[in-house]
Amino acid sequence: MRRLVPGLTLSLALAATLLGCGNDDGRETVTLWAMGHEGEVARDVLVEFEAAHPDIRVVVQQVPWSAAHEKLVTSVVGRSTPDVSQLGNTWIAEFAALGALEPLDSRVEASTAVERTDFFPGIWDTNVVQGETYGVPWYVDTRLLFYRTDLLERAGYDSIPSTWAGWKASLAAMKSKLGPDDYPLFFPVNEWPPPVIFGLQNGSTLLRENDTRGAFAERPFRDAFAFFVELFEDGYTPGVANNEIGNLYQEFSRGHVNGFITGPWNLGELRNRLPAEQAGVWSTSPLPGPEPGVPGVSLAGGSSLVLFRNSARKDAAWKLIEYLSLPETQARFYDLSGDLPARASVWESPTFQSDPRLAAFGDQLAHVVSTPKIPEWEQIATVVQEHAELAVRTGADIDSTLSQLDRRVNRILEKRRWLYEHGKLASASHDRAIETLQSIGLRAGTAGGGR
Amino acid sequence: MSRLGYQNGSAAVFLAPALGLLLLFFFLPVVIGVFLSLTDFDVYAIGNPGTARMVGLANYQYVLGDATFWKALRNTLYFVVVGGPLSVLTSLGVALLLSHRALRLQGIFRTIYFAPVVTTLVAVAIVWRYLYHPRYGLIDHVLSHFGISPIDWLGDPNWAMPAIILLAIWKNFGYNMLIFVAGLQSIPTELYEAASIDGAGAWRRFVHVTVPGLRPTFLFVGLTTMIGYFQLFAEPYVMTQGGPLGATRSLVLHMYEQGFRWWRIGEASTLAVLLLLITLVATLVQLGMQRTRKTNEIPRTAGPAPRGDAA
């Protein structure tokens, strides 16, 4: 016991110092959680923020992506949320449903720094759940086509055609130049984005009746799904998962697979991983659309900054969000992290316009839509992937596969239907989705009629 | 009588901390788990507990009618029934080799064979994914010398579970091997000598000395391996994420996804309760098998005659 006492006193003193150090200079301390690489570079852009706001101190906590979701949910349940956090924009609906996020509409309205119209509309829309805005886009990503330019040229094309039919013809031409075990494309069958993207391109809303039932057996998605499955049947992409092909970059370098749909993170990966003499053999292209004049939309991805409802320093925290949204900060953040800026005005600078691979992303970002903004979406996406894999691997009948998919999805959404029928949910999300689709020139709701 | 009561009282005082901890960290969670399995607690309920509903046995009804559950159960049983015995036999075989008198440097071999047990599975998985690769993998390369065309180990729904079993055996056999080595050392060498003098060859010595001598070890290894194999999770989680076509989705992986990916806590709790019941039944069956085997053998192992009750 005698030995214990000094130790105890020491640790108490230490704890007191640690607890006290936040307030010893009278500044307000705002905590920011940032994931992965963003967490590493965020500090560098915050130096200027702290210089401009001598009364605010920002503590950045770096959270690895693999643990981020669980840590965030745990912090919500345990009421130990930070003031501000980076949040993958597909997670916003979930945390809004948890009641963890502060609605930002009035703050955005009053702000001069966060200029709503300067953000890519499809990206902004991912932050709006049931009619309320819960996040401000920090950086964006979307998926488009990465391809081998040398193979495309050998097949007699100088760019990726802009319609499904034209694209398919180019795939056939490329396939004819390849051996039986090599492919012009690679869509891993364990990933959900390709079939979902084609569905969205064809005007499917994926879900119906205020996101309480699946709309996968309906015409727009059904036709897109058939197009997707044909790409496998015609031998343009191997029907395997991404853990079955070893190293994707090696396969791409060796010409075993010659194209894939993926995001901006692979710009850097390909630059680093391909041998120097192959630096010029690949490029990126916006996705083809189903018909002439209909842009091929892609997914609105990226991360937003959110303010937690439990925060005791919302005004200071909002200043931080405003600062990170400024075009100058966004440009600087791109230099540090390589993350694509969320504001369209930043994209006008030569940095983005002079690099065609990057410019393709700018073009694609004008045509992005969000997936249904409900907490169940990620689970639904996996079920979509499972059924796509089933159709590809076993050649199962498309219509019965999609009816089965709708039944699975309807079961997942049972709780949501109940909440909706008992007036525990507002009904704005569906109309919003249609509005967004229309705002980017897509014939939502009418799709399928002409096909 | 009162003395007994006093003894019980002081025993209770000494046992209280342990019992309290057990109650708090074992029984209470089980009770809460059973309770949650009767609700539809989900992501909406985390935000607003008012939206949770008592649903009675609806979760059980749904899970028992869900093809994904039965598939996961089939996969798990496949893993337990095929992988369990193979794993135990591998451990036993290696333990026998290691205990052979002719073997030098036993310590080094023991360490080598134990190494996979303490290696991080994630690191191991990366290496094994390459071993299983149909184009570059070592395994298919070796098989091709015997005229066997490449097998898509992790991509073919028929081969994915055997691939997981192979990995699991390689990863885990070292642990049981050590227990068998200890078990072998506890068999008195006199028995072997006596058997040799009676003219028993290596095989008969194994069947009539080693196997009966290892019986308690078998019971322990068999039970822990079976219970452990029912908990199959990490291997498919890092190797296949349950694919291809759900061929390697185990019950625990299914439960994890329902609970911590989709926050369907009610359904995940239902799965946990069902897995508990299944494991319990399987354990009782195995214990029963061991007991009948023992009863059958009583006439043969005519041990020392039971001493009469002297008192």
From TrEMBL, chain B:
CDD domains: TM_PBP2. The chain crosses the membrane at residues 12-36, 77-99, 111-131, 159-182, 214-234, 262-285. The keyword Membrane applies. Signal peptide: none annotated. InterPro entries: ABC_transporter_permease, MetI-like, MetI-like_sf. Residues 73-286 form the ABC transmembrane type-1 domain. It is a multi-pass membrane protein. Belongs to the binding-protein-dependent transport system permease family. This is Sugar ABC transporter permease. It comes from Eiseniibacteriota bacterium.
